[in-house]
Amino acid sequence: MADSIAIARGDSPPVFLDTQGSHHPQNGTLFGFWLYLLSDLMIFACLFATYGVLSRSFAAGPSGRDLFDLNLVAINTGVLLVSSITYGLAMISMQRRSVRGLIGWLLATGALGLAFLGIEIYEFAHLIHLGAGPQRSAYLSAFFALVGTHGLHVLFGVVWLVVLVVQLRRHGITPANARRVACLSMFWHFLDVVWIGVFSFVYLMGVLP
């Protein structure tokens, strides 16, 4: 690999030149992914702001006190937080160059992500069965938009994780795969932080009188 990469130095930042003549700035992938996370943060900020404005617009319909099962939500929160721990163990395995350990902890993280999605889908189905779907009131529209967007991000994260496991099985811990694992780590922990905001702002404050 070292023979196929030359480093061009000049007045500009370091650039990696491969045998096909393509250029890749050093740490460009991680910097670009930070920019993506900032744009995603703006999306969630807008959704939180929308929910804050509409959080009392019940249209004579049910409120969070009438609908939310905090025990179920607490279990789901615990599942997602544990998935952050398993991903941290995956990162430790990668530092130890253990492909088997890395894949194992990534699969455990994916299983917890699927469990989180399963509980969330059950909650949504239960609310719709009660007649509290997103069309019932502006409050419920904002609720489904915020929580559903987070759930879609978790789904995309699980799909990304499965693709990454396939790449690790085929190619091992290459520099490219190591970057992908690091990017997914930032994405996954970002989703945990957002969910803590959802749990506190939407669910806990939603059951207050």
From TrEMBL:
A Gene Ontology term for the protein's cellular component: plasma membrane
Location of this chain's protein in the cell: Cell membrane
Keyword terms of this UniProt record: Cell membrane, Electron transport, Membrane, Oxidoreductase, Transmembrane, Transmembrane helix, Transport
GO terms, molecular function: cytochrome bo3 ubiquinol oxidase activity; cytochrome-c oxidase activity
GO biological process: aerobic electron transport chain
Pfam families linked: COX3
Gene3D superfamilies: Cytochrome c oxidase, subunit III, four-helix bundle
Ranges that cross the membrane: 33-53, 73-90, 102-122, 142-166, 187-208
Membrane topology: Multi-pass membrane protein
Domain Heme-copper oxidase subunit III family profile: 26-207
Role noted for this protein: Cytochrome bo(3) ubiquinol terminal oxidase is the component of the aerobic respiratory chain of E.coli that predominates when cells are grown at high aeration. Has proton pump activity across the membrane in addition to electron transfer, pumping 2 protons/electron.
Assembly information from the UniProt record: Heterooctamer of two A chains, two B chains, two C chains and two D chains.
Family the entry assigns: Belongs to the cytochrome c oxidase subunit 3 family.
The name this protein goes by in its record: Cytochrome bo(3) ubiquinol oxidase subunit 3
